[in-house]
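Sharing a chain and its predicted structure for anyone who wants a worked example. Both blocks are below, sequence first, tokens second.
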Amino acid sequence: MLEWIGQYQVVGLLAIGGEGREVWLAKSPSGGPVAIKQRPRTAARSLSLARHPNLVEVIELVPVGDELYTVMEYLDGENLAGLIRRLIKRRERISFGLAAHMIAEICDGLHAAHLAGELHRAVSPQAVFITYGGELKLLDLGVAIADPLYRSPEQDGDRPLGRQSDVYSAGLVLYELTTLRRVFGTPRELDMTIPPPSSQTESYPPQLDAICAQALARDPEERFSNAAAMRDALLVTAGTLDSSGDPSQAIASKLMRLFGDRIAAKRQLLDRVRAGQPLGDLVATEVDEEIEVPGLQIDRDDRDDRDDRDDRDDRDAGATIEDAELRGPELAQIARVSVTDEPVTGQRRSRQRSQPAPTADANPTSPDSAAVTAHGFRWGVLVLFVLALALGGAAGAYLRLYA
């Protein structure tokens, strides 16, 4: 461990961030705590020009050898990812109005960054910090590596990015905070149709449903034009849903109840830093890491249809021209009727699930069974006809040869 980074005395390791980059707790020349994050030189070459109460303050950049260290204000609180895991663990929720206020604060910080000519590119629950005093801060402006599960469609497609890219990611965070479900579980799901959050949580406000739908439109032109527009919509919704008074106080009260033990331990740690005393054990940065944020509850037919599309894509990738020439509606129909273990569409699976299993009392002359029987009979006649032609041709050839 380095003892000094520039003029800052390193007192302990706070966390290991993305790509194994370390975050240190250090003491400034004035005696106050700061956080110092290790970065490769290519990740951050200049200080962010954006300054806003909802953006973490970057104090300076300190080069040491091949590494660059970002000195930031020390924040006493929890990141949003930890809050979501703690809520799931305790089987609790944040009120819809309070959640709308929280994401509005993040959008306010994003708007300030955009006005300064910067995109965040990596908005996620991990990049949102909540202080124990109830303030919201956006971390890692312009230097974080985007979590692939929170990337906008244009990021995923390596297309030019605008402000609406950050709006999309903020929409994913809003969705997750209000439903306690992660929208995308794997990168393979990024092109799926996102169901409305009201399909995941009872009594979901239609105002928030509409905000999520607009923020998560695949076409950037259909989203909010900028983060300020999304912020304004969220603030109006928060005002109509929540009458608890000061939202910052409500957030602080919620955190005190959820993280009271950690709050006390962290404050004792800061007192030791200021007094120059031995630190002892540092408080773990992440909490409840054993808790898995569940994915969306998607209608089974929709999931089956998506699986079928994926299966067809996989088969098409290795298909030959001859395969394509053999395909057709007649051949596909024969395969579905005569081969029971072939994949079927989600619509067909739905019909199969809705039909009761046959019993001894089942009507053998039902329309469906009659149709299948008739089809099977026609197919059998066709096979016999082909065989008869083949046998007839062989017999004719025999007679011509030996007559």
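Comments welcome. The radius of gyration is 30 Å.
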